[in-house]
Amino acid sequence: MSGYYDYILGLIPATLIGITLALTLVGLPVVSAVPAGATVAIGLMGHAMFVKGPVPETPSIDRDGRGAAGVDHAARTPTGNSGMSAQNAD
After folding, report:
1. Are 44 and 51 contacting, i.e. CB atoms less than 8 angstroms apart?
2. What is the pTM of this model?
3. Comparing C-alpha atoms, which of 18, 13, 73 is closest to residue 45?
4. What local confidence, expressed as pLDDT, does residue 53 receive?
5. What pLDDT shows up at residue 50?
6. How many Å apart are CA 75 and CA 62, to the nearest integer?
7. Which of 7, 30, 37, 87 could form a disulfide with 20, with the two C-beta atoms 3.0–4.6 Å apart?
8. Quick one: pLDDT at residue 83?
9. Coil, strand, or helix at residue 72?
10. In 3-state terms, the chain is what percent helix, strand and coil (to 5)?
11. Taking a C-beta distance cutoff of 8 angstroms, is the pair 20, 37 a contact?
12. DSSP-derived secondary structure letter, 20
């Protein structure tokens, strides 16, 4: 399924070429039409980066060390016992 960023990646060249072509066909010189198309394409990029920016999908961890799904993230250490070695487990 296509997401927001897939549409943005398709719209960037489409707006640059489409708006430039449309403005050229209307009678605007290419020297003025290209910056107009580029402005819209840059606006799409800015929206994708700053307005609806990518957010990493990391699980939130509560104060007790459990994530949103109830997984105990504090116990996930190489020793398997909350960071305590076998000698300190007493």
Report:
1. no
2. 0.57
3. 13
4. 74
5. 86
6. 13
7. 37
8. 52
9. strand
10. 50, 5, 45
11. yes
12. H
